Amino acid sequence: MALSTTRTLLTQTGINTHQVFDIGGLDSVGVATFSNFKTGLSNLHSIGFDVVSNTGTGVTIRSTGNASFTGVVTASKFVGDISEATGAAAGLGTALSQTQTDPLNKIYFTNKVLSISTTTTIDHPATANLAYTQYGDIKIEDGHDLIIKTDDDFKYDILGISTTKIPSNQFPSGLSGDLTGNVTGNVTGNVTGNLTGNVTGNATGLNSDSSINTTGTITATSFSGDGGSITGVNSPVFYGKQGTSQNIDHATYTTIINLTSTSINIGGGFNTTTGVFTVPAGKGGTYFLHGGAGIDDVQNNDYVQVTFMKNGSRIGPYARTWAPDQNDQIIDANLTTIMNLSAGDTVNFQVYHTGNATEPTEENRCFFGGYRLSV
User: Fold this and answer.
1) Do 142 and 119 meet the contact criterion of CB atoms below 8 Å apart?
2) Closest by alpha carbon to 341, among 319, 315, 367?
């Protein structure tokens, strides 16, 4: 029996793109050139190829080198810059080298300024204490805002390597260490340590009240108000001196008044106009008192006498100065004493002279003052 062979040769010139040839199999040892190859949903074309599954997702690879994967990419190693990859944001910074074996791969840098070129809201998860960045400066471009959501905290320069001073109100977790420089604004919270320099403003609400508790030394040019509760100061302290003359009647005890010159009234209670000191509440104790008066135009053999009054009554001791053997002189009398006073007691300083007429006091030579020695 003879072997039969059948061969069909397909030849045609000018085959156009509208013709379809159904060839069951095609083998070629040469080069086949087509503008596009397609099978199912996958497509191989001049700029790359798309491998697509029946669900419409897959891999796209372009001749530019870009590739897009909608699934999971698994590889034994990744080489190159992945700083812009999702979930791979820089932590410490950017390595100086991308070569794993290079020591510079373990040395990092961060640019100085983080530019906010679009309105951005910081809203960290409730499970976090705060949001932070290693950038030393934040620059908010014109027309944009950096918004920190209510109850959220944000701290920049988390590594503390910036040379730029941190502005005010940037210590959400508290401030510790040495603080050098000027502080402007309100301080809320506890302050422990030494304060050197000037403090301008009011201190209120300290230790749940308006008091200041200190174991150190407070130095001031003046004190205003009630200073009697300051530890180590037995206030009140009061003093007044006449700046203008006062007429004193003949043989009449008269309170020295208008003690408004160089007056001191620490702890309260001293009325410089009437010349009366009233012991403030809670300020009773032992007081040192000092007073003096100078009378002008005193005649020969007259005298000037001074004493203190407590609660409207003159009490001893008293001091007396006689005029020498000549007329029209200024005679001074001074008196000091120690007196126990209770809260509400009044004390004033009086002068008396034996001249034959009303005589004036000598301004700047009449004074009254005192202070508490002990409680």
Assistant:
1) no
2) 315
Q: What is the DSSP letter of 206?
A: B
* Under 8 Å between Cβ of 235 and 228: yes
DSSP label of 361: B
Can you tell me the distance from the alpha carbon of 255 to that of 250, in angstroms, rounded to the nearest whole number?
A: 14
Q: What are 221-255's pLDDT values in tens digits?
A: 665 555 545 555 567 999 999 989 999 998 999 99
Reported pTM: 0.43
The pLDDT value recorded for residue 65 is: 72
Q: What pLDDT score does 253 carry? A: 95
User: Is 282 in contact with 343 (CB distance < 8 Å)?
Assistant: yes
User: What mean pLDDT value characterizes the chain?
Assistant: 79
Q: Which domains does the chain have, with CATH numbers?
A: 37-69 (no CATH), 94-155 (no CATH), 237-374 (2.60.120.40)
Q: Which residues does 160 contact at the CB level (< 8 Å), separation at least 6?
A: none
**Whole-angstrom Cα distance, residue 346 to residue 343?**
9
Angle at CA of residue 90, ends 86 and 96, nearest 5°: 125
